[in-house]
């Protein structure tokens, strides 16, 4: 608090001094106009840009692939920030220091941060990273926070605790938007029309004829989105379940292939019709996005038994991509008609990610997908600002202007 008061006092004195100088010293109008024309530049940060680390909840350690996920993040040159809570403190300590699943070198790459939260869907309740550049000052990473639809006060407050810990700024917008329903390539932003209403937030829904215009303006001003695209007829409320930017201008879109459809003949008519509708929605979205981006179709297993199987809900860690692997999420719900194609799917998926310059790693995700998400949902990227700004070939050049 003392530091904040000192900074505030310094800012006020600086402002007063500036006013005094303006009264005493004539200002060069041409120079003054140039300074006025300089504006704060802001842009969203894409997950395929360099990251110095990823944040995960302690709860993920007790999931099937949790330990392996942490190990692969570290292999991908990412530090792991482990959000811990008081109720699980003893269990986490026992796991890390008694059972010792990590080598000493790996453990050195894990930083524990006590952050009271309830959900392990870190992607959804954490805010979105942006890059801000003020005139004459170096660019800084910041965050834009939205209202988490689950309405959990712990989860919504978590980012503000974290921001204080890393000395970063957070702008809060009273709009309900889960992080999993947002995708960006650093300039363009994508989300679905699934925007929930909140008693304390503006109600934005698909019935609003000006929805896209309103949201586009909000995201442009707060995050620097040059263009915002809202997709409709969504196959899943969260776009990160079926879309993925892998580089600027290139996006993966899930696809239910004809070969996959040939396996569903034994299902009842209602189930077949539902799967067909999902296929149509994916195809229509891919066609629309192809007008603006290079679209690469990513095969997906049959979405059945209320499980939306997907290889798009992967997490990129620098040049590594961690992709969900499926076997048999819930045998009690019945069989999976295209299970014999799973190996072929993974072979094609690995080829697609490799073509984008990424090293594919598959980890088991049966327990996560059964609950409605996978590795992208349980991680949160922390961008490596130095690496981003030094990358002359990428989007960083815009922030330097």
Structure description:
By secondary structure, the protein is of the alpha/beta class. The chain has one domain: L-arginine/glycine Amidinotransferase, Chain A, CATH 3.75.10. The chain has 14 helices and 17 strands. Mean pLDDT is 83; it is low at 1-37, 196-207 and 396-401. The strands form five sheets. A four-stranded mixed beta sheet has the order 1-5-6-7, sandwiched between helices. The chain has a four-stranded mixed beta sheet with strand order 4-3-2-17. Strand 5 and strand 6 form a beta hairpin. The chain has helices spanning 2-24, 29-37, 66-75, 89-99, 104-107, 122-125, 153-166, 211-223, 258-261, 269-289, 342-355, 366-370, 385-390, 396-400, and strands at residues 41-44, 51-57, 79-84, 110-114, 128-133, 140-147, 170-176, 183-184, 188-192, 227-231, 243-247, 250-255, 294-299, 315-317, 320-325, 359-364, 380-383. It is globular, with a radius of gyration of 23 Å.
Nutshell version of this structure?
The protein has 401 residues and is an alpha/beta fold. The chain has helices at 2-24, 29-37, 66-75, 89-99, 104-107, 122-125, 153-166, 211-223, 258-261, 269-289, 342-355, 366-370, 385-390, 396-400; strands at residues 41-44, 51-57, 79-84, 110-114, 128-133, 140-147, 170-176, 183-184, 188-192, 227-231, 243-247, 250-255, 294-299, 315-317, 320-325, 359-364, 380-383. The chain has a single domain (42-400), classed as L-arginine/glycine Amidinotransferase, Chain A (5-stranded Propeller), CATH 3.75.10.10.
